[in-house]
Structure formats: structure tokens, C-alpha cells
UniProtKB/TrEMBL annotation, chain A:
Pfam families: DUF881. The keyword Transmembrane helix applies. This is DUF881 domain-containing protein. InterPro entries: DUF881. Keywords: Membrane, Transmembrane, Transmembrane helix. Residues 44-53 have a biased composition (Low complexity). The lineage of its organism: Bacteria, Bacillati, Actinomycetota, Actinomycetes, Kitasatosporales.
Automatic annotation (TrEMBL), chain B:
It holds the Pfam family DUF1290. It is found in: Cell membrane. Belongs to the sbp family. This is Small basic protein. The keyword Transmembrane helix applies. InterPro entries: DUF1290. It is a multi-pass membrane protein. GO terms for cellular component: plasma membrane.
């Protein structure tokens, strides 16, 4: 198709009838007088050194010295000839250059890869993109599930933490490690005669507990489950080793409507104490503050068996 | 010289104008360009061999382009367009290389 094919089959013809060489003789003399070293040997491409070594002795007796390829190139390039053939070739090459540039430009566009693609390629690319989208969707779904799970579990953990704190507070109220406030009563036992003893106070405490008291302190000492009362010297009472003396002021948090009658029942705490000639006053209050604390004691032997 | 100028002017014009390639010739343009390149290399080699003929060059150039486009068209119709155009490019590439080798031997004598 190309010239080379044509030339190989035309080569013998060109040698014999030689339509091309007809042009050459008019060029060759000009060439030879311009460049006198063009009397290259018959195989110029194989003997460049020989050509270079024997520069000047040019005998133009050879009528048509074959030109080397390089000289033909130079010949064709430099003296620009305005022939019809040159114009046609230039036109074709213009088309080639144009198409080349257009193709390169359209290919280097952003979507150039897709623009030149065939239909089946586009379908394949679309399929691949669909697959990829699906995979990514699945991945996204999985990650979202994971996130939801983590959120709920962290919610649960938060809830559990809140409940734990709440429970700790409740237990702290019972154990006396935190302050408490709420409705309740104030029980004041003024013992001017020194007749009130520890067991009477203990009775009062038991009565209050039975009536549903939730936090008790007496003269700045928190009363808890392990509280003990003993008689101390001088008519005083020792509560958990803290010596307190009259008047004994109980601050009790609980339901006042339950606590007060429990103390006042006939034969109850109040009557017993008044029999000992102590003055007892019970007054309800909407806000009792029990702020006496006792340190939390770590049990030495008992361990929680819940976990 | 004028031919080289034509090539350069064509490239510059293509870059400057940046025309939208019509959808009809879109699949054929790359193959046609490669085929034309093959024809140009063949022509260059023929010129170096001293047997260049402008008529042969024109015919081979145009027929190269047309046949290449035809092959691609046929391949598209047969459903083997991608493979066939790959084959065309391979064949043309081999020819370009052999022509380039001949040119190189002429120009550099090596």
C-alpha cells in the first residue's frame, strides 16, 4: 500500500524505464557542482569513511553518480521547489497533521477516554462502574450498620453509666457517704435531767427506721446500719464513738406523715422519753438537709457476688 | 520543504482550531491517522531511496486511510472492532518501524 511496497515491486521497472530518474539528471548536475564530494562509491551507505577520506578528487566523468539517502533528503528539503507534487504532498501532510492534532487534542480532553471508546467498551465500563457502585454501596451499608450499632451501644453504655451513678447515689445515701435532702422531721430531745440514755435514743432510731426514714443524723453524726450507741460518762451518749450530749437533735428524712405519728403513738418514743422528763419536740419540715458524712469503708472480706 | 511545512501547519491548525470531531468519523480517525503515518514513512523511505513518486504517494496515502477506516468499519459491523483495530495498529506499527529502520540506515548510515 505504501510507497515502500510499490517501490520494491517497481524497483526493476524503475531501473529499466525509470520514470523517476528522469527527474534526477537535471538535479544531479546541480548537485554535483554544488557538492563536489558527491562522487560516492556505488555503495555509499557502506563506505562513509572511504568517502570522507578521499574528498577532493572529483572526476565528473561518471555521468550519474548515485546520490546517498542523506543527500537526497537534504536535496528535497532545502531548495524549496514549487511543484505540483510538492503541493499535493503538502496538502496530504496537512490533513495528516490536522487529524493527528485533532485526535490528540480530543484524546487529551477530560473525557477523551470515553469519547473514543466503542459501544461495547462503554457498556463494559458502565458494567464495571455499576459493580463498583454496588460494592461501595454494600460497604457503605455495612459501615452504617456498624455506626448504628456503635451508637446504640454507646447509648446503652451511657444509660448504664447514668443508672450506675444514680444507684451509687442511692446507695451512698444509705451508706452515709453522700449528703441528702428532702422532706422529713426534726426530733429534738432536750435532756435537762440527764436521764436519757443510749438505749432510749436507739429506740427512737429504731422507731424512725421502722417508720421508713431514709437518712438520719444526730448532732452531726450520720446514723447508718452499723451505727452503735453507748452510754458515755457525764450523762452523754457516744454514737459511733463520737460523744454527743443533750439536746439531741435528730434530722430525719422520710415521709413526715409517717414519721411523726410513729413517734407519737401511745407508749411510743415520745411518751417514754417524756416519762423520763425530757422535753421532746417533733416538727415537720419540707426540707431537711442531712449533710453529715461518714467515710466509705472498703469491706475486708465481703466481695460482691453479683459478677 | 513545502511538504514539511504542510505537516507543521496542519498540526498547528489542528491545535488552534480544536474542532469537534464528528461522531461519524470518530472511531476511524485514530486508525486513519496511523495509516497515514505509515504512508508518510513509506514515502520518506522511498524518497531516500530515490524512487519517490508523488502519484504513488498520493494513491498509497489515500488508499491506506480508506482501507484502514474500512477495516475498522467492517470490524465494528462484525462485532470485532476492537480486536481488528488493534490488529491494524499492530501491522501498521510494524511497517512504520521497518520503514523507520530503512530511513535511519539512510540518514545515519547505521
Amino acid at each position: 500500500m505504501s510507497n515502500q511496497d510499490e517501490t520494491t515491486e517497481k524497483a526493476p521497472k524503475a531501473a529499466s524505464e525509470n520514470p523517476l530518474r528522469k527527474k534526477l539528471p537535471e538535479e544531479v548536475p546541480a548537485e554535483t557542482q554544488e557538492t563536489p564530494k558527491s562522487d560516492a562509491p556505488q555503495l555509499p551507505s557502506q563506505a562513509p569513511k572511504a568517502e570522507a577520506s578521499e574528498p577532493p578528487e572529483t572526476e565528473p566523468e561518471q555521468p550519474e553518480p548515485p546520490l546517498s539517502g542523506r543527500q537526497r533528503l537534504v536535496n528535497g528539503l532545502w531548495p524549496p521547489r514549487l511543484s505540483r507534487a510538492q503541493f499535493i504532498v503538502a496538502l496530504l501532510l496537512f490533513g495528516l497533521g490536522f487529524g493527528l492534532a485533532v485526535q490528540v487534542a480530543s484524546n487529551s480532553d477530560g473525557d477523551g477516554a470515553l469519547r473514543g471508546a466503542r459501544q461495547e467498551d462503554l457498556v463494559r465500563i458502565l458494567d464495571e462502574l455499576d459493580d463498583r457502585t454496588q460494592r461501595l454501596e454494600e460497604e457503605k451499608q455495612g459501615l452504617e450498620d456498624q455506626r448504628t450499632e456503635l451508637e446504640t451501644s454507646s447509648d446503652q453504655a451511657e444509660e448504664a453509666r447514668k443508672q450506675t451513678i444514680e444507684k451509687e447515689k442511692q446507695l451512698g445515701i444509705l451508706a452515709g457517704t453522700v449528703a441528702a435532702q428532702g422532706p422529713g422531721i426534726t426530733l429534738t430531745i432536750d435532756d435537762t435531767k440527764g436521764t436519757v440514755e443510749a438505749d432510749m435514743l436507739l429506740d427512737a432510731i429504731q422507731e424512725l427506721r421502722a417508720a421508713g426514714s431514709e437518712a438520719i443524723q444526730v448532732n452531726g453524726v450520720r446514723v447508718v446500719a452499723s451505727t452503735y450507741l453507748t452510754d458515755a460518762s457525764g450523762g452523754a451518749v457516744s454514737v459511733d464513738g463520737n460523744k454527743i450530749s443533750a439536746p439531741y437533735r435528730f434530722k430525719v428524712i422520710g415521709k413526715p406523715q409517717d414519721l411523726e405519728p410513729a413517734l407519737n403513738i401511745p407508749g411510743g418514743v415520745v411518751q417514754t422519753l417524756e416519762k423520763e422528763r425530757a422535753t421532746v419536740t417533733v416538727e415537720r419540715s419540707d426540707k431537711i438537709i442531712v449533710d453529715a458524712l461518714r467515710p466509705a469503708k472498703q469491706p475486708d472480706y465481703a466481695r460482691s457476688s453479683s459478677q | 520543504m513545502i511538504a514539511v511545512l504542510g505537516l507543521v501547519v496542519g498540526v498547528v491548525a489542528g491545535l488552534l482550531v480544536r474542532p469537534e470531531v464528528p461522531a461519524v468519523v470518530e472511531p476511524y480517525l485514530p486508525i486513519a491517522v496511523v495509516a497515514a503515518l505509515d504512508a508518510v514513512f513509506g514515502g520518506l523511505r522511498a524518497m531516500l531511496d530515490g524512487i519517490f513518486d508523488d502519484k504513488v504517494f498520493v494513491v498509497s496515502f489515500l488508499s491506506n486511510v480508506v482501507v484502514a477506516a474500512l477495516i475498522v468499519f467492517l470490524g465494528d459491523k462484525l462485532g470485532v472492532g476492537a480486536q481488528l483495530s488493534t490488529g491494524v495498529v499492530v501491522v501498521l506499527g510494524i511497517r512504520i518501524f521497518s520503514n523507520a529502520a530503512a530511513i535511519r540506515r539512510h540518514v545515519f548510515r547505521a
